Amino acid sequence: DAGVIQSPRHEVTEMGQEVTLRCKPISGHNSLFWYRQTMMRGLELLIYFNNNVPIDDSGMPEDRFSAKMPNASFSTLKIQPSEPRDSAVYFCASSQDAGKAYGYTFGSGTRLTVV
Amino acid sequence: QQQVKQSPQSLIVQKGGISIINCAYENTAFDYFPWYQQFPGKGPALLIAIRPDVSEKKEGRFTISFNKSAKQFSLHIMDSQPGDSATYFCAASRRQAGTALIFGKGTTLSVSS
């Protein structure tokens, strides 16, 4: 099993540009989570999908952020337009049954730098 | 009520010593308390987890102690090794479907040899 696959690993973009982060969850996992990690705020939940349906998007900072899960094997997190304060490491994680028995498997993250 | 407060922010322990990281929560509906370990450049990985019907869970050198009345739980790493140097996150959630883990801000542990 290749685990949770995120791309790109690093992204440097200019303020105002659109950024799209991608995630392929583990096959058979029915829950998918997007988290953002910064030194100041730690790991913040952005959005949570269950069976491809968004369940909780209360952590999405503002309308500039959007996430989709068109099928069980792919999800995207889009930031448009990007701002310097969006610079962070973005993690995707997947789990069986919301991770209550087996925990979450995290990807290696996308380090986003907005200049 | 959704917060999980973790301390200390950083910790330096000598090889062979005991590392202790503490977490506190407010939401009494939380009933699942995992700890995750993160190495530089990697995503967090599940280390050990506990449910509130037990006061302690041990896996090798790692032990979770849980105090339901105080709404606190802690991670103890016995015989700490340089390979344990990492960032540790506590987390909490409700067991019911439709809820996600809420993480503490993390503790960076350095074990000196």
Brief synopsis:
The complex is a heterodimer of chains A (115) and B (113). Chain A has 115 residues and is mostly beta strands. In chain A, 0% of the residues lie in helices and 54% in strands.
Task: Describe the protein in words.
The complex is a heterodimer of chains A (115) and B (113). Chain A has 115 residues and is an all-beta fold. In chain A, 0% of the residues lie in helices and 54% in strands. In chain A, strand 7 and strand 8 form a beta hairpin. The mean pLDDT of chain A is 93. Chain B is mostly beta strands and 113 residues long. Chain B is built from no helices and eleven strands. In chain B, the strands form two sheets. In chain B, strands 2, 4, 5, 9, 10 and 11 form a six-stranded mixed β-sheet that branches. A five-stranded antiparallel β-sheet of chain B has the order 1-3-8-7-6, with no helix packed on it. In chain B, a hairpin with a 2-residue loop joins strand 6 and strand 7. In chain B, 34% of the residues are buried. The mean pLDDT of chain B is 93. The chains are: A mainly beta (115), B mainly beta (113). At the A-B interface, strand 5 and strand 10 of A face strand 5 and strand 10 of B.
